[in-house]
Design brief:
Layout lengths: L18 H44 L2 H24 L2 H9 L5 H19 L3 E3 L14 H25 L5 H17 L6 H34 L4 H28 L8 H26 L7 H5 L3 H36 L5 E3 L2 H18 L1 H10 L5 H21 L5 H24 L18 H12 L5 H32 L1
Antiparallel strand pairs: 1-2
Length: 509
């Protein structure tokens, strides 16, 4: 009896894959791809169902007729914009908490949806500006029909751009998107003179100011925590001393941030009141957290991961408060132009500020939540996990930076974007971590442009560690390039789209 030679995958060569194994792997990959496509299509179906609900509601709310048609179209565009805000912008509030495993993705989505809606409905404001950042004066428009279609074009272009950015995986500023839309539609409808270019220049400055400030503040806090707590011999004792202070700073900053940004449409306290709120929050939090940390420290191991668990609850609170402030502040990006259209159609006048009907505010609040739940996980994953690895200490620094930077910038009168601040903070902690890690691995890579043979009497092991440090990249440059490029073209891109939409509407209506 002749024996056949062992076939591929036989026990004679167990490491070699059989044809069946390869086919099964391809089948599994195909199944995963099909599942992703099915999930995406299902989400799109739910999104269209929400839009259909808005259309039915707006039609019956306005009673039919030509006026009803205009308001219904505007409501649909506003709902579409709100969904895109939820899909893209909200990720900055909860992404770090998810990336650090302080929150699960489902938990983050639920918390963000609840607090975004609460912020929009409770503190969204009864009166809002019709045109974001006062870039274009309402007086520049010839009549109300020109104004209505210009605002419609601005809103639709911003929504389209944010939708595209979400698809590409780039967190962008929805405020800048609507600003670009207003500029493009304003120029198309009323000419170059209609735009306040000084205001536009200030907004352009925020492209640099926001991420740089956010990154520097986050990196500064991370450096302090590393050298004051994590690099100490007795990490638990250092945590007992400094964690209550750090969490109290966060509570103080968030109290002021919430009043300044989250409640600004319903309450505007003076500087003295803000100072008292900050001091009161700091004192109360320091006492409470001090007792909690003192009690918990007995069971903590003298390891950085164990100490990092002390930041879990502050991170969850930060995600909730950031979402509340975002919902109250950015809902105007979705429903501001919509409210302006409704006012122009029903009242027959073009106003710089208008009363905000509850149903318009509700469309914005619900739309943000729908967009977050259906399409938000993609950007949350990028902000929380793909740019750099976040543990709870780094995520804490990102959240703290987001509140402090907005407070400092607002006090100094600097224009900033909360999206740019949060993402800049993630990059800031990532680059600091990369710098410190490379230094601690061995020799400074900058000392030797090329791998040395035996510099300064260094051992072979040190040289290998140096080479490893030279190549170690803890921040993914690909995401940095994509995000910065998206930031730079947000305003011009949305402006061009708005101008094209307005031109098309003006041609065919």
């Amino acid at each position: 009896m002749s024996l056949r030679p062992p076939s591929a995958g036989n026990s004679a060569n167990p490491t070699k894959k059989t044809t069946v194994d390869k086919d099964l792997k391809r089948f599994v990959q195909l199944e995963k791809a099909s599942s992703r496509i099915s999930h995406r299509n299902l989400n799109m179906g739910f999104g269209l169902l929400f839009m259909l609900g808005v259309w039915v509601f707006a039609f019956f709310k306005t009673g039919g007729g030509e006026i009803s048609s205009i308001i219904t179209i505007a409501a649909l565009v506003g709902a579409y914009m709100a969904m895109n805000i939820g899909a893209n912008d909200v990720a900055n509030n909860v992404g770090p908490a998810v990336g650090s495993k302080a929150l699960t993705l489902v938990g983050a989505l639920v918390i963000a949806a609840i607090f975004e809606a609460a912020g929009a409905l409770i503190a969204g404001g009864e009166v809002i500006s019709t045109i974001s950042k006062s870039i274009v004066s309402p007086d520049a428009f010839a009549d109300k029909s020109v104004f209505i279609w210009a605002m419609m074009s601005a809103l639709l272009s911003a929504a389209v751009w944010v939708n595209l950015a979400t698809y590409l995986g780039a967190p962008v500023s929805t405020t800048h998107s609507i600003v670009g839309g207003v500029i493009g539609a304003g120029i198309s409808a009323a000419g170059m003179a209609a735009v306040d270019w000084l205001v536009m220049l200030k907004i352009a400055a925020s492209w640099v100011i926001s991420p740089v400030l956010g990154g520097l503040v986050a990196a500064a806090f991370l450096a302090f925590i590393k050298f004051a707590i994590l690099y100490r011999e007795d990490k638990v004792a250092a945590a007992r001393r400094w964690v209550p202070v750090l969490v109290a700073i966060m509570a103080s900053a968030f109290s002021v941030y919430l009043v300044m940004k989250g409640l600004k449409r319903v309450w505007k306290p003076d500087t003295l009141m803000l100072t008292m709120i900050g001091i009161g929050a700091f004192a109360a939090t320091y006492v409470i957290v001090g007792m909690v940390v003192s009690k918990s420290s007995g069971s903590l191991e003298n390891r950085r991961k164990s100490v990092g668990t002390l930041f879990t609850i502050p991170l969850i609170c930060a995600a909730a408060l950031l979402s509340f402030a975002h919902g109250s502040n950015d809902v105007a990006n979705a429903v501001g132009p919509l409210a302006a259209i409704v006012n122009a159609v029903t009242e027959g006048e073009i106003a710089a500020k208008v009363a905000l009907p509850l149903w318009v505010l509700a469309i914005g609040a619900i739309g943000i939540c729908v967009g977050l739940l259906l399409f938000g996980p993609k950007i949350i994953e990028i902000v929380g996990e793909k740019i750099t690895k976040l543990d709870r200490v780094r995520a804490f620094c990102v959240a703290l930076s987001a509140s402090i930077t907005v407070i400092v910038a607002s006090t100094l009168g600097l224009p900033v974007s909360s999206t740019h601040i949060a993402v800049g903070a993630v990059f800031g902690v990532g680059f600091l971590r990369e710098f410190i890690t490379n230094r601690r691995l061995g020799l400074d890579p900058k000392c030797f442009p090329k791998p040395p043979l035996n510099p300064q009497g260094a051992s072979d092991q040190s040289i290998r560690r140096w080479a490893k440090a030279r190549k170690r990249k803890l921040v993914r440059r690909r995401h940095l390039t994509t995000i910065v490029a998206a930031w730079l073209i947000t305003v011009p891109a949305s402006a061009c789209v708005a101008a094209a939409i307005y031109f098309a509407i003006n041609t065919f209506r």
